[in-house]
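# nightly structure sweep
# worker-07 picked up a monomer target from the shared queue
# config: single-sequence mode, recycle default, output format = structure tokens
# input follows
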Amino acid sequence: MRSSVSITIGLGVALSLALSLVLTGAAYGATDEEKCAAAKMKEAGKYGFCRMKAEAKSVKKGEPVDYSKCDGKFSKGWQKAEFKAGGACPTNDDEAAIQAQVTADTDALVTALGPTPPSECNVLTQDCPIGSEACFINIAVLDPVFTFCANVQFPGNTQGDPCDFSNGCAKGYGCVLPDDNPNERVCAFHCDAGGGGPTCADGPGPAFECRAINDFWGDVSTAPADLGMCVDPLEFP
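# output follows
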């Protein structure tokens, strides 16, 4: 009889503990909002890892970088996370913005870790072979200066608009960090400081002055002498 009571009490305690664990797990379960945020963080991390793997393969084999699989998987995973959350995500419709951020971050890592690539294009003549691309200065590492062709992330960003990425401005514009404003990069039109090429009148207007970027971009020491940007003379006397 004592044994039966003991077993009954033991089962009761075990069931109580099990119920307590279930209730505790439910109390600390993630909300739909948190689950979506976690899923998006995971997708962003996977996308960055995929891009770096593609870059590493390119360096080892000496072939062009192919991000197509990375882009496809990222888009599919991002849309799945938002659809599953049913509108409960902390942010929505931000696939393009996060993709651009991860792209900029991985590009900066590649620049810091890899060999300096040769310049691909001329920012003054905008001679990229693919019409949808524009020529930009890589702002991740400015010494030595080199250029590359890329799709324009924000084609509406022109003179004075804030920018965060090398390709964050319209075609013909570059993302510059002036010495007098170290906290905010802005778009500025590329002009020929030596004459004979594009002038400020071709971009923001004749009220701006074409200055060699060595005059106001402190980190640059290897830029061609004729490589300039249009600046407001009141801000850069």
